[in-house]
């Protein structure tokens, strides 16, 4: 069986490696790992080295199912092939039973029902001054969920005893101007062109919080978290287009959620790896000579 790409996983650093940020000492450090069906590879190495990811997009395969109550992933027992639009087969999707938009469904799976009874966190995720998202997640997932989304910083607003209670506030906040409920990958990429500083992010989030509390007539006790240290972040990025799009190569530079950035021949390249889950991947630790750079930059869209 081919080595299938399963995604980018953000893991909290162990205490001995967890260097505390001077600007945000209460936020733990995380680091991205490239997860495949055969191995787990850190994107950033202790000793800097180049990395190349080459995806074969001829056929997509099922990435398996996940026990959403125990947070354990399992391979697809059928090694099923799937259509390009999907990364799980029908059987594994049913076995997982996860529906992030459960509040729009007339029926939900027993797994989702059990998940909904657990404590959930309400948060504001910051991508840029023009892009702030409200969301909820199972408390057990912690800050890792925000790293998975590629948020540059966040406000944890409150923790609720179950998903329904958290969703009540999420729905109300999502109706307010300037707050998004969903953010596309393209919008996240565009946000990287905007200047980011911890001070600006904290100020914008506090202003959003004030509007939310005034509109809802309630008070939260938020906690601010900045993820710049985990991202290896720069203030902003000028991204260069390149071909082929199924290859990423260069020295690891930064990472935001499933988006990996490298420096390659003086240019900054970005790959949104989520589009390649379920495809075979080859990982090497040398720079590829086969990329063609173009003068076109990935602009704001």
Describe the fold and architecture.
- 21% of the residues lie in helices and 33% in strands.
- It is built from 7 helices and 18 strands.
- The protein has helices at residues 90-96, 110-116, 144-149, 163-174, 185-191, 198-216, 228-231, and strands spanning 5-12, 30-36, 40-42, 51-55, 60-61, 65-67, 72-74, 81-82, 120-128, 131-138, 153-160, 223-226, 240-243, 247-256, 259-264, 267-272, 281-284, 292-297.
- Strands 16-15-14-4-17 form a 5-stranded antiparallel beta sheet. A 4-stranded antiparallel beta sheet has the order 10-9-11-12. The chain has a 3-stranded antiparallel beta sheet with strand order 1-2-3.
- The longest helix is centred in the last third of the chain and has 19 residues, at 198-216.
- It starts with a strand and ends with a strand.
- Residues 297-301 have low confidence and may be disordered.
